[in-house]
């Protein structure tokens, strides 16, 4: 039974290209399955979060991260009576537009694309699901429902100001009401992203040796978790101690989000998903005390992990890869694979060509980008 403020499958605004209903799956289940079977989703296997793909098999990739986000989203949305399929769909799609080499690759490509309308991974995800996936006979993209597209576009909140080119293009074709908040399911996907990366970046940072458990004993949230484990299991071996502590950090974040959402929903008593969109603020969020504590942890991760000397050294290397591949393809588009040539030949101007090149470079995995750079640039 779904709550009255959940997205009801039978009340979906449908797809831009009308399709017959599935016999066995709801519209949001079909959207989720199309994302899982997409080429962009498979490529997330070899796109990194923080560490470059070749640095170790243990570290999270965009694919494992997306799966973890989807798991958190299903848990929270299920407790709140939301549509778990839609929340999972948006969670699985939220990183489809990421470049190789994580945010480092995105920063490099965004600078290169400044003369041509910029680059944004969230807008690029919209470009992928509305245009770049080309597997179906009757349409480009995945022909997702309006609710799924809305969630991908604005799960982080209303989108204001000049729109990124890909988002502007999609919104012009189908008004996504970007000035409003998204459904509660999309808000759950956004907070699940925060929960997942806050948790697994602590894991990966410890695994890499960039900081230690003793460092985490100085921080809010993590310190009480380690203290609780030490009291319950004195002398526990290091790897089990680490896991037990961080699963408590994970649990506290999820429980906090659920408690806050239940309180806000009880106070507001929304009767429909439209009332959620018009509330003027997110209903799914951390409590203020936990939010402030997580800011301390994120600052710690920024300085000790994301800007660690070894990570910065690798960032410089992979930035050079993107900085050399993009202008090379702009100058010599014939180097693009055969299936991209038709788009290149139809490009009316330099901006259109730049977006085609950006689509190609952004779609690369870490491994493929490094291989292509070695092959083409020496």
Automatic annotation (TrEMBL):
<dbReference type="InterPro" id="IPR003607">
    <property type="entry name" value="HD/PDEase_dom"/>
</dbReference>
<feature type="domain" description="HD">
    <location>
        <begin position="62"/>
        <end position="198"/>
    </location>
</feature>
<dbReference type="InterPro" id="IPR050135">
    <property type="entry name" value="dGTPase-like"/>
</dbReference>
<dbReference type="Pfam" id="PF01966">
    <property type="entry name" value="HD"/>
</dbReference>
<dbReference type="InterPro" id="IPR023023">
    <property type="entry name" value="dNTPase_2"/>
</dbReference>
<dbReference type="InterPro" id="IPR026875">
    <property type="entry name" value="PHydrolase_assoc_dom"/>
</dbReference>
<comment type="similarity">
    <text>Belongs to the dGTPase family. Type 2 subfamily.</text>
</comment>
<dbReference type="InterPro" id="IPR006674">
    <property type="entry name" value="HD_domain"/>
</dbReference>
<dbReference type="Pfam" id="PF13286">
    <property type="entry name" value="HD_assoc"/>
</dbReference>
<keyword id="KW-0378">Hydrolase</keyword>
<dbReference type="InterPro" id="IPR006261">
    <property type="entry name" value="dGTPase"/>
</dbReference>
<protein>
    <recommendedName>
        <fullName>Deoxyguanosinetriphosphate triphosphohydrolase-like protein</fullName>
    </recommendedName>
</protein>
<feature type="region of interest" description="Disordered">
    <location>
        <begin position="1"/>
        <end position="28"/>
    </location>
</feature>
């Amino acid at each position: 039974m779904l709550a009255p403020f959940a997205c009801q499958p039978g009340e979906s605004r449908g797809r831009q290209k009308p399709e017959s209903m599935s016999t066995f799956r709801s519209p949001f289940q079909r959207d989720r399955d199309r994302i899982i079977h997409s080429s962009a989703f498979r490529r997330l296997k070899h796109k990194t979060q923080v560490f470059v793909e070749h640095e170790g098999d243990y570290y999270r990739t965009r694919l494992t991260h997306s799966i973890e986000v989807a798991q958190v989203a299903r848990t929270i949305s299920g407790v709140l009576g939301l549509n778990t399929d839609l929340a999972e769909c948006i969670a699985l799609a939220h990183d489809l537009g990421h470049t190789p080499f994580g945010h480092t690759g995105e920063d490099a490509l965004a600078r290169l694309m400044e003369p041509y309308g910029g680059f944004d991974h969230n807008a690029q995800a919209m470009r992928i699901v509305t245009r770049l996936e080309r597997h179906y006979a009757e349409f480009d993209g995945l022909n997702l429902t309006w609710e799924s597209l809305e969630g991908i576009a604005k799960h982080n909140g209303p989108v204001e100001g000049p729109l990124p080119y890909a988002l502007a293009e999609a919104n012009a074709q189908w008004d996504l009401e970007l000035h409003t908040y998204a459904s509660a399911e999309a808000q759950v996907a956004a907070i699940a992203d925060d929960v997942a990366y806050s948790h697994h970046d602590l894991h990966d940072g410890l695994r890499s040796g960039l900081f230690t458990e003793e460092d985490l004993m100085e921080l809010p949230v993590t310190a009480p978790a380690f203290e609780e484990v030490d009291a319950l299991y004195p002398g526990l071996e290091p790897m089990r101690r680490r896991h037990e502590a961080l699963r408590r950090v994970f649990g506290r974040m999820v429980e906090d989000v659920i408690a806050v959402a239940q309180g806000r929903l009880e106070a507001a008593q929304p009767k429909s998903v439209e009332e959620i969109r018009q509330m003027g603020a997110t209903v799914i969020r951390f409590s203020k005390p936990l939010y402030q504590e997580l800011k301390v942890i994120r600052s710690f991760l920024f300085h000790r992990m994301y800007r660690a000397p070894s990570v910065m050294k690798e960032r410089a290397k992979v930035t050079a890869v993107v900085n050399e591949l993009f202008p090379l393809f702009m100058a010599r588009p014939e180097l693009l694979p055969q299936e991209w040539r038709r788009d290149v030949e139809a490009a009316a101007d330099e901006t259109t060509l730049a977006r085609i090149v950006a689509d190609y470079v952004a779609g690369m995995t870490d491994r493929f980008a490094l291989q292509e750079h070695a092959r083409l640039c020496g």
